């Protein structure tokens, strides 16, 4: 049997023990995990330094930023675990109850999913976020990090497992280190029906597509984020510039960063020069990376930039790049988003309440915004604690996936000898 297979068997065996663990014990174990992470910061940083050194020259600057840990980020990871511990337990809730005419009493009760596999790329913090959310919701997690972050994730997992060991639940947090090769381990995880209950991919379009198309284990599709901001003809320009700047540049390597800007034709001639000054000139003057503006034909008549190619409005850049297009009005903006969006997060900036309501009702994305940055699509920002991913599908879960989204339910039926 492969090492991956042995790990999956241990994970399956741990699932009933974790599912039976009470809220107080889960919270105590999570607190121990947070302390272990904070106390093991030097070990994590040493492993992370090796990952970053190996990635230089191969990954873009924004991807290196996603990979890099420092003491502040590790403290944030530990704090995230404590925030999850402080949230209400999502397991064992009576969602509804009713009594049948034959006297049967039926309750719908929340339960863990079981064993959750997570395949993700170069974001080591996903390791602790996923482990904490799964543990609090009574789920065993099997983590398959990308090779770029393997050392970091292995160090984090070792510390989390050590904290869970006194509870007999070290195997509630498992990591696949790719002893058979990274692709082979991922393929085995995707085919582990009967051992893994659900698979959640977190990463770029290629990873998600591979999981959705090849996994025999049920898969929750999480987002690539081709997120749009539409500046309406009745937008406050100052607000719009602040929102676009934040959505594009605050952290361009994440899935809720803006990738496409649409501007109403009514204001394009006045607004686009201000955009260029803000995202290019002002950032260059401040010693920051300027944003490359990739322009459709109409926008290119107003400001200079890179001519847009056929696929630029369908690309998740994850970098200091922004596709810019001019549209007639809110209806054309909605049509453009319907054709190019990944159904993640999309925003309208306007002072027109009718245009705002039309946009919010017509755009079919997991999160739609009026006058706010798309960067808020996040479990922590939504008050859900850290998240296990942003679901862009409609079945089971949609948007930031917190504790509730990591549960299913079962029917508990109580009778007095009834037969059918």
CATH homology group of the largest domain = Aldehyde Dehydrogenase, Chain A, domain 1
Question: How many domains is the backbone divided into?
Answer: 2
Roughly what is the average pLDDT, rounded to an integer? 94
The helix fraction, in percent, is 40-55%
**How do the strands line up in the largest sheet?**
10-9-11-8-7-12-13
Rounded to an integer in angstroms, the radius of gyration calculated over CA atoms is: 23 Å
The ordered H/E elements are HHHHHEEEHEHEHEHEHEHEHEEHEHEEEE
In the CATH hierarchy, the third-tier topology of the largest domain is known as Aldehyde Dehydrogenase, Chain A, domain 1
Largest sheet: 7 strands, parallel
Q: Report the span from N to C terminus.
A: 46 Å
Please name the CATH architecture of the largest domain: 3-Layer(aba) Sandwich
Structural class, by secondary structure, is alpha/beta
Describe the structure.
By secondary structure, the chain is α/β, with parallel strands linked by helices. It has 2 domains: 3-222 and 401-414, Aldehyde Dehydrogenase, Chain A, domain 1 (3-Layer(aba) Sandwich); 227-376, Aldehyde Dehydrogenase, Chain A, domain 2 (3-Layer(aba) Sandwich), CATH 3.40.309. Helix content is 41%, strand content 19%. Helix 2 (23-39) packs antiparallel against helix 5 and helix 2 packs across helix 7 (150-164).
């Amino acid at each position: 049997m492969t090492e991956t297979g042995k790990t999956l068997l241990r994970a399956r065996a741990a699932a009933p023990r974790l599912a039976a663990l009470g809220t107080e014990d889960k919270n105590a174990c999570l607190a121990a995990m947070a302390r272990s992470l904070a106390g093991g910061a030097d070990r994590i940083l040493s492993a992370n330094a090796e990952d970053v050194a190996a990635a230089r020259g191969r990954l873009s600057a924004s991807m290196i930023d996603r990979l890099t840990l420092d003491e502040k980020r590790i403290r944030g990871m530990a704090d995230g675990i404590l925030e999850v511990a402080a949230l209400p337990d999502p397991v064992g809730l009576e969602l509804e109850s009713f009594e049948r005419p034959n006297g049967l009493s039926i309750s719908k009760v929340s339960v863990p999913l079981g064993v959750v596999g997570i395949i993700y790329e170069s974001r080591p913090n996903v390791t602790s976020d996923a482990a904490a959310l799964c543990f609090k919701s009574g789920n065993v997690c099997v983590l398959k990090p990308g090779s770029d972050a393997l050392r970091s994730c292995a160090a984090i997992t070792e510390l989390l497992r050590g904290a869970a060991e006194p509870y007999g639940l070290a195997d509630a947090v498992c990591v696949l280190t790719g002893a058979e090769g990274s692709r082979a381990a991922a393929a085995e995880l995707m085919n582990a029906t009967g051992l893994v209950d659900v698979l959640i991919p977190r990463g770029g379009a290629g990873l998600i597509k591979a999981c959705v198309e090849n996994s025999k284990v049920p898969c929750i599709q999480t987002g690539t984020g081709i997120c749009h901001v539409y500046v309406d003809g009745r937008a406050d320009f100052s607000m719009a510039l602040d929102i676009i700047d934040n959505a594009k540049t605050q952290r361009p390597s994440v899935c809720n960063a803006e990738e496409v800007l649409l501007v109403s034709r009514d204001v394009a001639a006045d607004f686009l020069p201000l955009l260029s000054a803000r995202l290019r000139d002002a950032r260059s003057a401040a010693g920051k990376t300027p944003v490359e503006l990739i322009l459709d034909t109409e926008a290119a008549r107003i400001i200079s930039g890179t001519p847009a190619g056929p696929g630029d409005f369908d690309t998740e850049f994850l970098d200091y790049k922004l596709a810019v297009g001019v549209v007639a009005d809110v209806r054309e903006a909605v049509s453009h988003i319907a054709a190019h969006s990944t159904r993640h997060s999309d925003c309208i900036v306007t002072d027109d309440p009718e245009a705002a309501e039309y946009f919010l009702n017509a755009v079919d994305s997991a999160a739609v915004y009026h006058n706010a940055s798309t960067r808020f699509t996040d479990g922590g920002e939504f008050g859900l604690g850290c998240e296990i991913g942003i679901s862009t599908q409609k079945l089971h879960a949609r948007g930031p996936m917190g504790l509730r989204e990591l549960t299913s339910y079962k029917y508990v039926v109580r009778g007095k000898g009834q037969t059918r």
